[in-house]
Design brief:
Length: 334
């Protein structure tokens, strides 16, 4: 009888040990995937054309993922810009013209509050991107305002949160950082234009050869060739843990283009009763079309949606006016 009890206890102990090990392994795997920072290596050096463009605009170096020194040395402060004038909602210099406005529509539970930035640049080199902590990798995050301030940005929005996933094509400031095609991406070109593309149909090498300076891997495409995209019913961005359809009303961040070097950026607040419910993808696409965008693309939204201008966050991110850490931004600098 005693032997049977001892055997049962051993079996129970072994089972408990295996269960704890299994749960611990699962928890560590989740933490490693979504919480623990991982610095990643650069995939490829920029093409000659891209390198020239990157050097001329003072953007991130391809030689290292730690680019703090490069950005600090090459980016001038907004205060020293030639003939610059500004107020809380406008900035104008010889190279940059930005106008930001707050828009409110509807009322009560149907009220929507959003922010539109009309950005006109003399040269595409004024439109740049930056990583959290000046480092490329997964789960490395800072607030949009922190990244913007560290790069002397005049204006900034959150990017595609590339660091939450391990796929997609990531080209930033002429450097290829990741080459794992997965979805419809967005490409910005050195001539001041932009267009969506299918990552699985166009190689990263071809993109660089065409003069692509930056790509974003989120989506979906909102406006293409001047017409809004209509079918968002089953759109999913990826297959990460907890992923769900994003078609319902949510906070939003997006970028559109009206003509070369003339961009429109929109950040929609949401999930805030009697202030802003957010927008559906259809509403977001229609808004960009109404603003005159010929191409438009949806970036990371929800708690990430943040617009920064002249040293302050202008919207109310996260439903409580508190920013969420993100892996990257798109910004305008002198």
């Amino acid at each position: 009888m005693n032997n049977k009890k001892k055997k049962s206890k051993r079996i129970l102990l072994i089972s408990l040990t295996l269960s704890v090990a299994t749960v611990g392994g699962i928890l560590y795997g989740l933490a490693d995937r979504y919480l623990i920072p991982h610095v990643e290596e650069v995939v490829a050096q920029p093409s000659t054309a891209a390198a020239i463009s990157s050097s001329a605009s003072g953007t991130q170096s391809a030689a290292t993922t730690k680019t703090a020194a490069t950005n600090s040395a090459s980016t001038t402060s907004t205060a020293s810009a030639a003939n610059a004038t500004s107020d809380d909602w406008n900035y104008k210099s010889d190279n940059v013209d930005i106008s930001v406005k707050q828009v409110e529509t509807g009322s009560g539970e149907d009220k929507i509050t959003y922010y539109v930035a009309d950005v006109q640049l003399k040269n595409a080199s004024n439109l740049r991107t930056a990583f959290a902590d000046h480092t490329f990798g997964r789960n490395i995050t800072e607030h949009t305002s922190e990244i913007a301030s560290a790069n002397n940005a005049i204006f900034a929005i959150n990017g595609d949160y590339y660091g939450f996933r391990n796929d997609g094509v990531v080209i930033r400031n002429g450097t290829l950082y990741r080459d794992e095609p997965a979805r419809d991406g967005l490409a910005l070109f050195a001539d001041g234009t932009m267009k969506p593309y299918n990552e699985e149909e166009v190689s990263a090498e071809d993109l660089l050869a065409q003069g692509v300076t930056n790509t974003f891997s989120f989506g979906p495409v909102l406006v293409k060739d001047g017409a809004t995209v209509q079918d968002f019913d089953h759109v999913k961005i990826d297959t990460n843990f907890g992923n769900r359809t994003i078609d319902e009303a949510n906070p939003r961040t997006g970028i559109g283009i009206i003509s070369p070097n003339h961009y429109v950026f929109v950040v929609v607040d949401g999930r805030q009763q009697n202030y802003s419910r957010g927008m559906t993808l259809n509403e977001f696409a229609e808004l960009f079309e109404d603003l005159g965008a010929t191409e438009a693309y949806n970036l990371d939204g929800g708690g990430s949606s943040t617009m920064y201008f002249m040293g302050r966050v202008v919207n109310s991110p996260g439903g409580k006016g508190q920013e969420r850490g993100v892996s990257d931004i798109i910004y305008v600098g002198e």
